[in-house]
Amino acid sequence: MSRYDKREDPRRGRRGGWQVADVPPADDAAEWFTGRLPGEWFGAVDVTVDREEITVIGTLAEPQTEGAAEGAAAEGRIGRFREDTKARRIAIAQEAETRYGRKVAWGVRHGDVESLFTHLAVPVMTRLRQPERQVLDTLVDSGVARSRSDALAWSVRLVGEHADEWLGQLREAMAEVDKLRGEGPGL
């Protein structure tokens, strides 16, 4: 039997093959975290969800320290918050992971300083042809990136920054398709 035989792994015959994740929807994750987080922690909370991870970045409710050392004061405040809330953040993350089937990453913003405590670095399967690899190698050779992986991440960030409006429209269109699919006739 070939290692590619459909009988070896039932996921092989599915639409999307190996890359389709069977995870519960997380449409209400922002609302859930807003309701679940202690009110004294954050003034505002940004929740971002993808297939593997939920990232929660809160803006500390405590006002930013003024003066020449604002950056150092903010970093100190963020460090204190991280230590003081660790046990409660772990408990909330475990609840969310059970509910949504995704890991939870935490971050804090205080003034102009933002710190992401934990997050996933998910390997992405790519099949790049030589011209695409040459672009990545040019970024590495020029010192823009340390490795092909860093160069690819840099490229994705750059596209995201310059195509924000278009990506937003695309996400809205995909949401409309999902809505229409849900309203369609059952089989």
Description:
The protein is an alpha+beta fold and 187 residues long. The protein has two domains: 29-116, GMP Synthetase, Chain A, domain 3 (2-Layer Sandwich); 130-183. The chain is built from five helices and four strands, in the order H-E-E-H-E-E-H-H-H. It has helices at 29-36, 70-100, 130-141, 148-162, 164-183; strands spanning 42-49, 53-60, 103-110, 113-116. The protein has a four-stranded mixed β-sheet with strand order 1-2-3-4. It is globular, with a radius of gyration of 21 Å. The two termini are 34 Å apart.
Instruction: Say how many strands there are.
Output: 4
Kindly report the average pLDDT value.
82
Gap from first CA to last CA = 34 Å
Number of domains: 2
Could you give a short account of the major beta sheet?
4 strands, mixed
Unreliable residue runs = 1-21
Shape: globular
Going across the biggest sheet, name each strand in turn. 1-2-3-4
Q: Please work out how many helical segments DSSP would assign.
A: 5
Q: For the record, what CATH class of the largest domain applies? A: Alpha Beta
User: At CATH's second level, what is the architecture of the largest domain?
Assistant: 2-Layer Sandwich
- Work out the strand percent: 5-15%
Order of helices and strands: HEEHEEHHH
Class computed from helices, strands and strand pairing = alpha+beta
Kindly provide the radius of gyration, computed on alpha-carbon positions and rounded to a whole number of angstroms.
Answer: 21 Å
Q: Give helix % range.
A: 40-55%
Predict the CATH topology of the largest domain.
Answer: GMP Synthetase, Chain A, domain 3
